[in-house]
Specification:
Order of helices and strands: HHHHEHEHHHEHHHHEHHHEEHHH
Number of strands: 6
Distance between the termini: 33 Å
CATH superfamily: Alpha/Beta hydrolase fold, catalytic domain
Protein name: Carboxylic ester hydrolase
EC number: 3.1.1.-
Strand order of the largest sheet: 1-2-3-4-5-6
Number of helices: 18
Structural class: alpha/beta
Largest sheet: 6 strands, mixed
Family: Belongs to the type-B carboxylesterase/lipase family.
Helix content: 40-55%
GO molecular function: hydrolase activity
CATH class: Alpha Beta
Pfam families: COesterase (PF00135)
Oligomer: single chain
């Protein structure tokens, strides 16, 4: 499941496994056990600090933070040990998740404990929600203490005990002013224990290789991923965006001007145009570019893009937005889709089930250098040339530019950091001197932003 490591639940209706398991047997004759996993969320699942690390050591634990991820590990261990009792095959376990769930799947690959045989990573590799050091989490921990009115002059251990004893509702409420961004997001902690070493930056995925125990990987993204964080950047104007980019600490010399040029960012853009430019920039920077890196490094991967426009009448109608793919895979809302999209939903469910059961959902990238593209009416396998509007040439130009400057793929990491700052306000979040308090913004219309419904593209042609 998704939820930025803060929201949602394995028991949420959208993740009701009974629907997909019924589909697996009755529609496709591929009987499949579907398991949804709950794990600790928010600061209860991810907060870290030196005080917490010392506290954990008293109980024989070296790591800190990542408690929700360790919950997942225990669930996977339990599943592998006991699934045969339910008629399952412990040698054929597929982990799949979207957004924070995709990040989780990537982390479990990196841990190298063979708890599954295949993985589907939907909209999120490891750095998506950020990877924070213990030192960065310390800033958040200290701000949590202030938000909960825990006196600064108390001994550190007594402060921690006050935090542990604080009512759950108060701790949850404190996340809002402390974590800054309108869509509160927490991160895995790079504690050196969870994955046994440093977690990778996006540019380092050029060296990513599938482990011997999990060769089957599906990975993909959706067309309008960064609508999920639209409240964080929708007040940006052309001038404020360009100022931010030009002042941003790029590691790649000339990187700011290169990004401005590649994305055709101009100081006379309207607020509406600026909004959609940022959405595309951040969808690329946080999702699509790194997927492209991973697929080229591991061509046996099954790669996809989801371009199906939402049929629902809301602010995101007409967009293939973040998390929408869950509706089509899990099938719970299939009856609310128009007939041609019901067909797409059925095809997606079958593809996910086929992959989980060791079959080909479509052609792997290596065979014809194609991506599976889920459209409004069908599945199409497209080469990079056939799918050129996606932006592959732009992303490769970033790679070439950094190499020419002698900094390798640094511009890829710069793009990620810029987008992370636009969407999750990382610098403000981890700045010990910044004030806590959420920037409140209004509806899209307050900034002259128009709903982008693609002329109601979801209607049947």
């Amino acid at each position: 499941m998704g939820g930025a490591f803060v929201y949602a639940a394995g028991g949420a209706a959208i993740y009701d496994g009974r629907v997909l398991s019924t589909i697996s047997k009755e529609d496709f004759n591929i009987p499949t056990i579907i398991i949804s996993v709950n794990f600790r969320l928010g600061v209860f699942g991810f907060l870290a600090s030196e005080e917490l690390r010392e506290y954990n050591r008293e109980f024989g634990e070296e790591g800190v933070g990542n408690y929700g991820l360790w919950d997942q590990v225990e669930a996977l261990r339990w599943t592998k040990k006991h699934i045969a009792a339910f008629g399952g095959n412990p040698q054929r376990i597929c982990v799949f998740g979207q957004s924070a769930g995709g990040v989780s799947g990537n982390i479990h690959l990196a841990r190298s404990e063979p708890l599954f045989s295949s993985v589907i990573i939907q909209s999120g590799l490891m750095p998506l929600c950020g990877i924070m050091s213990v030192e960065q989490y310390q800033v958040i921990y200290d701000k949590m203490l202030r938000a909960l009115d825990i006196p600064e002059d108390l001994p550190a251990r007594e402060q921690l005990q006050r935090l542990i004893d604080a009512p759950e509702a108060d701790v949850t409420a404190a996340m809002v002013p402390v974590l800054v961004t309108p869509v509160i997001t927490l991160s895995p902690c790079d504690d050196g224990v969870l994955v046994g070493g440093p977690m990778p930056s996006y540019s380092e995925y050029v060296n990513f290789k599938t482990p011997d125990w999990c060769k089957r990987i599906m990975i993909g993204d959706v067309k309008n991923e960064c609508m999920i964080w639209n409240k964080a950047y929708r007040a940006q104007t052309a001038n404020t965006l360009l100022r931010l980019i030009k002042s941003f600490p790029f590691r790649c010399p000339g990187g700011a001007d290169k990004i401005i040029d590649l994305y055709d960012l101009k100081d006379d853009m309207s607020n509406d145009e600026t909004f959609w430019k940022i959405e595309k920039l951040c969808t690329d920077g946080l999702y699509a570019v790194v997927d492209w890196i991973v697929v080229r490094a591991n061509p046996d991967i099954y790669a996809y893009h989801f371009d199906v426009p939402s049929p629902f009448d809301n602010d995101w109608g007409g967009l293939a937005h973040h998390s929408l793919d869950n509706v089509y895979v899990w099938g719970l809302l299939r009856h609310l889709l128009p007939p041609h999209q019901q067909k797409v939903s059925s095809m997606m469910a079958q593809a996910w089930l086929r992959f989980a059961n060791g079959q080909d959902p479509w052609t792997p990238f290596a065979q014809n250098k194609t991506w599976a593209v889920w459209t409004n009416t069908s599945l199409e396998e497209r080469t990079v040339v056939q799918d050129a509007d996606r932006g592959y040439a732009k992303w490769e130009e970033m790679e070439k530019f950094g190499k020419k400057k002698g900094v390798g793929l640094a511009l890829i990491d710069d793009l990620y950091d810029l987008c992370d700052d636009l969407c999750m306000r990382r610098r403000q979040l981890t700045d010990a001197g910044s004030e806590i308090g959420l920037l409140k913004v209004g509806d899209l219309k307050d900034y002259g932003i128009q709903k982008k419904n693609h002329n109601r593209a979801w209607e049947a042609n």
